[in-house]
Specification:
0% of the residues lie in helices and 18% in strands. By secondary structure, it is mainly beta. The protein has one domain. The protein has a two-stranded antiparallel sheet with strand order 1-2. A two-stranded antiparallel sheet has the order 3-4.
C-alpha cells in the first residue's frame, strides 16, 4: 500500500533562510537533525537543525 502522507516541518526560527515566516514552514525537502555535543539533558535541546543557514536579507 502506497503512503501519500507528506511530512511537514514547521519552524519558527525567523533567521533561517529556509523558513517561510508567513506559514512558519521549512521550505527544504529534507532537514538534517544533529545532536548537540556534550549535551545529555534528555530534552529537546539535545538536538538541533543542521540544515540552518542564516537569512542575510
Amino acid at each position: 500500500m502506497e503512503n501519500n502522507y507528506q511530512q511537514k516541518i514547521n519552524c519558527t526560527v525567523h533567521t533561517c533562510k529556509y523558513n517561510d515566516t508567513q506559514c512558519q514552514k521549512c521550505n527544504l525537502q529534507q532537514i538534517i537533525v544533529e545532536p548537540m555535543q556534550d549535551c545529555n539533558t534528555k530534552q529537546a535541546d539535545e538536538s538541533m537543525c543542521g540544515s540552518y543557514e542564516y537569512n542575510e536579507d
